[in-house]
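During the reporting period the student researcher (J.K.) took over the structure-prediction task from the postdoctoral fellow and processed the backlog of single-chain submissions. One of the processed entries is reproduced below for the supervisory committee.
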Amino acid sequence: MYSYSLLEPGCYYLIQEKEDEPVTLIKIMVETDQCMYVTQYEDMPTLLWKKKNDPIFDILELLSDDKVKEWDAVYNDSQDAYYEEEDDE
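J.K. obtained the following structure tokens:
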């Protein structure tokens, strides 16, 4: 079992918090003595605090800068399409 204390600020990770949960992309934004401020990317980004000792079932991957750029292009395109659909109504 891993914990948030292993993760580095400014980095994107693919993690699985619990064994039966889907894989989630997160970015560590800020580190304090006891906590991490995390952006969790799902349909919409969610900002939340996690204790450093909060468990992570698996840290699947630290994304490279190239993979983050690829993901960002796809993610932003899908977000733009979502907002355009809302504007049409």
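The committee noted the following: The beta strands are 2-3, 12-16, 24-31, 35-41, 45-51, 55-56, 58-62.
J.K. will present the remaining backlog at the next meeting.
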